[in-house]
Amino acid sequence: ARGMAAMTGYNGVFGYRTDVAYKTHENLGQDQAAYLEAHPDFDWDREVAEATKIAEACKAEGWEFACHTWGHLSVTNKSVDTLSTDQEKWQNTVANITGKTDTIIFAHGADIGTWRDYDASTNDQYAYFKSMGYNFYANVDASAEYWIQIRSDYVRQGRIDCDGLQMWRSLSGQASKNVFENFFDVTSVFDSRRPTPVSATGKA
C-alpha cells in the first residue's frame, strides 16, 4: 500500500480535460469554450483514456483513490439536492477514471455532523452519502494526534492537515498542541526562508 489521493473533478483529472462539458459542449465556462475553439480536434474520449491509464498505473503501485467532492464543495449544511448534483458529476467524470470508492475525504475539512455519531434517521446528509456506498468519512481535525469513530455502519476520523499553515501554527505556538511531534520534527522540515507569518490565504 502507498497512500490515498482525494480527487476532485471540477478542473479535470490528472491534468486532463475530463469535465463532461468538453464532450457535450453544454454549460461551458468561458475558458472551456475558448480552449475548444482553439483546439477543434479536441477528443474527450482520448483525454479520459489517458487519465485512466494514469489511474490504473497508480493503483498497480498500491495507491487508492477517495472522493473529495467534484467541486471541492464544503458539505456542511448543504442540502441533499446540492450534494446529489455534485456527486452525480463526480461519479460521471471522476469515478469513471479512478474506479469506485467507499471513502470520502471532505473538502475544506468540513463535516456533515458534530462529534456525535452519524445517524441516518436524523442526518439526511449521512443517509445520502451512505446510500452512495460511502463507509469511510474524514474531516480535518488538528486538535489531537488522532480522532476516530468505529461503528457498525461507518468509520469516521479526523485527519491532520499537514501543510505550511499548520506547521507554522505549531512552530509559533498558535496551536494548542504540536500534532506533528510523533511524525517528524517540524523545525527540520519548515523552510526558514519562507515568509512568515503564514496565513490561510497565503499572504503574510
Number of domains: 2
Q: Please identify the top-level CATH class of the largest domain.
A: Alpha Beta
- Given the C-alpha coordinates, what overall shape results? globular
Order of the strands making up the biggest sheet: 3-4-6-5
Order of helices and strands: EHHHEHHEHEEEHH
Low-confidence stretches: none
Second-tier CATH architecture of the largest domain? Alpha-Beta Barrel
The CATH topology of the largest domain is TIM Barrel
Q: Approximately how much beta-strand content do the residues carry?
A: 5-15%
Report the structural category. Answer: alpha/beta
Helix content: 25-40%
Total E-strand runs: 6
Number of helices: 8
Q: How far is the first residue's CA from the last residue's CA?
A: 38 Å
Describe the main β-sheet briefly: 4 strands, mixed
| Average pLDDT figure | 92
Structural Rg = 19 Å
Describe this structure in words.
This protein is α/β, with parallel strands linked by helices and 204 residues long. It has two domains: 4-161, TIM Barrel; 162-204, no CATH class. The protein is 34% helix and 12% strand. The chain has eight helices and six strands. The chain has helices at residues 21-24, 30-38, 44-60, 80-93, 95-98, 124-131, 164-172, 186-189, and strands at residues 4-7, 64-67, 103-105, 136-140, 148-150, 155-159. It has a four-stranded mixed beta sheet with strand order 3-4-6-5, with no helix packed on it. α6 links the parallel β3 and β4 (136-140). The longest helix is centred in the N-terminal third of the chain and has 17 residues, at 44-60. It starts with a strand and ends in a 15-residue tail after the last helix.
